Amino acid sequence: MNQLDEQRIREIVREELNRKETIEKITSSIDRIENILNVCLESLEEQVAKHSSNPDFNMTVLTTRVAEVTAQLLQLQAFRYMVINRQKGAAIE
């Protein structure tokens, strides 16, 4: 193997390590955001349970927020799977 081949191999390895680090940072950020959204969702669900027996309380805002946070969680999970699949696809290449 000549020096040019060795240099190219080092570049490829470096690129793969950088890609892996980037994906790990992205998934770590996704985990943190997901945890925050889950706490928000739990809090909203507690508020819904607390006020559900009160006929004078307008539940529209709370139930809308629950739906919005749930939708954000689903979008985040879809993004996570896209990142994971992209990582697997890159590893196959």
Summarize the helices and strands and which ones pair or pack.
Elements lengths: L2 H49 L8 H33 L1
Tally of helical runs: 2
- Strand % is under 5%
Number of domains: 1
What is the 3D form?
rod-shaped
Which stretches of 5+ consecutive residues score pLDDT under 50? none
Task: Measure the end-to-end span.
Answer: 22 Å
Q: Kindly name the structural category.
A: mainly alpha
Can you walk me through this structure?
The chain is mainly alpha-helical. The protein has one domain (26-92). Helices cover 88% and strands 0% of the residues. It has two helices and no strands. Helix 1 packs antiparallel against helix 2.
List keywords for this structure.
mainly alpha, 93 residues
What's a quick, concise take on this entry?
With 93 residues, the chain is mostly helical. It is built from two helices and no strands.
